[in-house]
Specification:
single chain, alpha+beta, 7 strands, globular
Length: about 160
């Protein structure tokens, strides 16, 4: 069985450098994601996040994951692997490409759950573990829309 991969894209009216700074600052994800409510960076490399913990919530379910940055190419791509209790869960990535009026942002989720991780997902995240691809597609659309809104908002006046 091939792993599920979900891909969503949006064009953001901002330069690739600005978009990269936003998506690679994993703490900001809590402002955009309907599921992630916090990220704690516990290791940095050259000033950028290398390892972090993501804290997530869906309804009454709360859980955390450990994440390791696997790709950090400024202005082009940012990706990280997610694990739970040492088991692979997913790879999340953000690919950036110049586009008319800004940057095309492509968010990808690649399901890497083993049977054990799927069972743990059911325990910690509830029934959504059974429909994770659909839930993530909806969440990705929300995340990208909020990212766009934040980056296109006029700068506050001093």
């Amino acid at each position: 069985m091939l792993p599920d991969e979900i891909v969503e894209s949006i064009t953001v009216g901002a330069a690739p450098a600005d978009v990269y700074r936003a998506v690679s600052d994993v703490r900001r994800m809590a402002r955009w994601s309907p599921e992630c409510f916090a990220a704690l960076v516990w290791s940095r490399q050259a000033g950028a996040p290398a390892r972090f913990v993501g804290f997530n919530r869906r309804g009454p379910w709360v859980w955390f994951t450990t994440c390791r940055v696997v790709t950090a190419e400024p202005d082009r791509q940012f990706a990280f692997d997610v694990t739970t209790f040492g088991m692979p869960v997913a790879r999340w990535s953000y690919q950036l490409a110049p586009a008319a009026g800004g940057t095309e942002v492509t968010e990808r989720w690649l399901d890497q759950r083993s049977r054990g991780a799927h069972v743990l997902g059911r325990v910690f995240t509830g029934k959504v573990a059974n429909t994770r691809p659909q839930a993530n597609r909806e969440g990705m659309r929300t995340t990208l829309s909020r990212l766009k809104r934040e980056l296109e908002a006029p700068a506050p006046r001093p």
